[in-house]
Amino acid sequence: METSLEFPPLMAFSLPPDFFPSMRVHTLDLKFQNTPGLIAAYVVESEGSLALIETGPGSTLPALRQAVMEAGFAVNDIRHVFVTHIHLDHAGAAGWWAQQGAQVFCHPSAARHLVDPSRLIDSARRVYADEMDTLWGDMLPAPEERVTPLMDAESVTVGSMKFTAWDTPGHARHHHAFIIEDACFTGDVAGLRLGNSPYLSVTAAPPQFDPPAYIGSVDRLLSADFKRLFLTHFGGITDVRSHLTRYRQRIEEVNQNVRQWLAEGLTTEAIQQRYEETEHALATAAGISPAGWDLHQMTNSTRMCADGVKLYVEKNP
């Protein structure tokens, strides 16, 4: 059963392509856990050539393939795949695409984990236990010759469009955003924003959350004056400067909150509870319904984020 979102119209089930002078961007809803509006992938169409940005997890591969076909394309026509980082909700299905003959482009530090995902899988299984397969599905190994690491500012041309990788750490050290003209496909570096709500959720999963690096990456995006951001969670937004400026503040807020709670001597469990209460209050003030809050928790758990921020603060007192 699909869950309906109580958000503004951007969350429409069928999303029209975004038009640019030399390309069309198709937002594909992967219906994570049978719920629309949580994880997106993007097909970029330029002069008859196609590129896929983000693959989602293995569990949503059937939905992704169906969405590609519903957009009017054959799955085998996608020969270029770009993943922002190797967290399972972004790149879990990358190996499948590589096994079909697509070339997968990623951060240099991510390449070896796409070729041999065993450490990623083992780590995730320790966290998710019996829910691992249901949530994330299979992560297949990519043939080594099908994985191409991109350095910062390195580009790949698909059709007439140049896809440029920007090293954007903070959420993860192995994170790229991908730039096409005046549009940026942000992965997690611009946070989570469901339904074009004013509430911004900081993607702070352990173990690599790093506020100074994160803010530096957001500042880099701000300096570029993009006209549109495409978030993996979820969709295209045009209020770019206000979004990034607010998100920069939010990163510092969660960092300072957890730092203060640790200084007060709160336990891990108490910090997780305080983090959830604080974020829930912000979301409620921004108009998020109880059902909408549950969807935020499904996509970016406050418990997980509290642990990520706490780990950074403990290592950087």
Structure description:
By secondary structure, the chain is α/β, with parallel strands linked by helices. Helices cover 38% and strands 20% of the residues. It is built from eleven helices and 13 strands. The radius of gyration is 18 Å and the shape is globular. Keywords: Coiled coil, Hydrolase. It comes from Prosthecobacter fusiformis. It holds the Pfam family Lactamase_B.
Give the terminus-to-terminus CA distance. Answer: 46 Å
Q: Whole-number average pLDDT?
A: 93
Please state the second-level CATH architecture. Answer: 4-Layer Sandwich
Count of extended strands = 13
The fraction of residues in strands falls at 15-25%
- Note the overall shape: globular
- Name of the CATH superfamily: Ribonuclease Z/Hydroxyacylglutathione hydrolase-like
Which structural category fits the helices and strands? alpha/beta
The CATH C-level class name: Alpha Beta
Q: Might you state the CATH topology name? A: Metallo-beta-lactamase, Chain A
Radius of gyration: 18 Å
In which order are the strands of the major sheet placed?
1-2-3-4-5-6-7
The main sheet comes to: 7 strands, mixed
Q: Low-confidence parts, pLDDT < 50 over ≥5 residues?
A: 1-15
What oligomeric arrangement do these chains adopt? single chain
Order of helices and strands: EEEEHEHHEHHHEEEEEHEEHHHH
Helix share bin: 25-40%
